[in-house]
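Today's session is about reading a structure prediction critically. Students often jump straight to the picture, but the first step is always the sequence itself: look for stretches that repeat, for charged clusters, for runs of hydrophobic residues. Only then move on to the predicted structure, which in these notes is written as discrete structure tokens rather than atom positions. Here is the chain we will use throughout the hour.
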Amino acid sequence: MTVEQNAGWDDILVRDNFQDQGQTPTPDPMWRSPDLIPFGSDILDFDLLESSYNGPDLGIRHPIVQGALNRIYVRGKSLRSGCPASGDARLYYAPGGLFLDPRAWHAIRSENGDTTVPLINRGGSRQIAPGQICVSRTAFVLPQLPPGHYCLIGTVDTPAHPVSPQLPVFNSNVDYVNWVKYNPDVCWRNIDVIPCEQRRYVLSNLAIGNLNDTPTKYVFGVSGTHLPDGTAIFSSTDQRFPFTLPPVQIYAPGEDEVYSRAITLPAHYSGTVTVVVEFAQPLPCDATLVLRAYNPVTSSPGTLAHRLAAPLTGAQEGAEPGRFILLGEYTFVTPPPGS
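Below is the predicted structure for this chain, in token form.
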């Protein structure tokens, strides 16, 4: 399943972001799939499914609501050039985070109680012609969960590119990132809606993990759009590894990412991070706040690690050769006026 593609994907594509056209590696950001569509208690019809393929993001208009019915649809598109494609969708959830422990994933069942749901076209057929958009025949239903942030992972299992219901076990952070970026039949969604016009936000219990066999440095990034000046503090009260990093200064309008000092997580660590963000002015109602986690490349990287790594201008912790691997992100958006 992990095969680098130079000419694009030849099967059913589920995107990681609107720029994703089946190329590998997927362009950043990797965790904003518009094809995992939370839709509340409403029924998603094909007209809207097709007309919104290139935007807007329907999931932002229908955020997950605690204690309510949360239908979630998986959308795909056939990039086959010849015969029709067919496939089955599966959906998983995990506590939301900057970098997840894959052992936290849980399968989500459909309204019929199934964990595997066929993809169908507008006419209800499983045969998806080249260029056709498809969707899970029934919606998946997120189970009733306690308040918090949650991530969604979708996969598409096809005859040409089978995907096991049992998600992979990863031996390193790089293997995990590679799985997302190099598989057009895997997609990810990390987006939450937060209220606007507040100055202080406490984003608690964001999952963070270290899959490596050795202690590993992490650097956190903060960026966004339409942000006032402010600060962000990353901390953890986990008794196994408590920490509080110095404040990160946010500069309006937030488009330039700013970085924390590095923290070294123990090998095989799995815990949470709390981020307290305070702004000098109320947060506008068209703002976004993006939190990211990076690994500095601190030793001679392998080919894959070097390919995934990129320089970070302004990061306080240097690395050899000053390159960092983006492990994950969580995006928070404020509702548009009148929503």
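Discussion point for the tutorial: The longest strand covers residues 323-333.
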